[in-house]
Amino acid sequence: MKLLAIDCAANLCAACVYDAAAGKELGRSVLDLGKGHAEHLMAVIEQALRAAGTDYTGLGAIAVATGPGSFTGLRVGVSAARGLALALKIPAIGVTTLEALAAQAKATFPGRAVLAALDAGREEIHAALYDEASVLIYGPAVATLPQAAAMAVDSSPVLAGTAAKQIAASAGRAFEVGPTSATADIAVYARLAAVKGEGEKPKPLYLRGADAKPQAGFILSRKKAGKKN
After folding, report:
1. What is the C-alpha to C-alpha distance for residues 142 and 208, in angstroms, rounded to an integer?
2. Shortest CA distance to 56 belongs to which of 78, 80, 84?
3. Do 132 and 100 meet the contact criterion of CB atoms below 8 Å apart?
4. Which of 187, 171, 181, 203 is nearest to 74 (CA)?
5. What is the pLDDT of residues 26-64, one digit of tens each?
6. Which of 70, 89, 104, 137 has the fewest Cβ atoms within 10 angstroms?
């Protein structure tokens, strides 16, 4: 089965085609955008398909990064994955950024626990802890830096993600460190999705609400029923 993986969770707009039976990537396209995923994603997918020598009809599943990550980017990626899956009548499979980062770290440090952690701003960290067998034992959840550091001291994991260096500094000791990016390599998402298989429809993983909220001065009070103007 050929599987298309897409990732818009962070700064990258990425896609790759993966041969699940052979366990091999067939082609990819990656843009470092920051923003503007919606305008570029379909072109990136087309480029990945061309690089793999296939087209949409040759796909058996769609994998997508579900976050945590960019609020808008996640919506773009998940909406595209679900739309393509519906049109092609194939499954869509969600993979979180934290499990992908942990899997990439484990490829370098096999048999080790991994704490995948992303700097979420506002002195918050989005974290997930996986044991030596890749079983999730904490999260995904919002943690403070001291909480994440204490978790690292207790379990001595490999650290991965954008908060890895902060956690090590806060803990005051050295740790082995995996990828320190906001998202994993696109092929990792494809590989994990191929193993997971079909499940629930993917949806964005938001560990906190959107930053944009109505300003208090512009909120209109609700009129009481039956009250005349």
Report:
1. 8
2. 84
3. no
4. 203
5. 999 999 998 899 999 999 999 999 999 999 999 999 999
6. 89
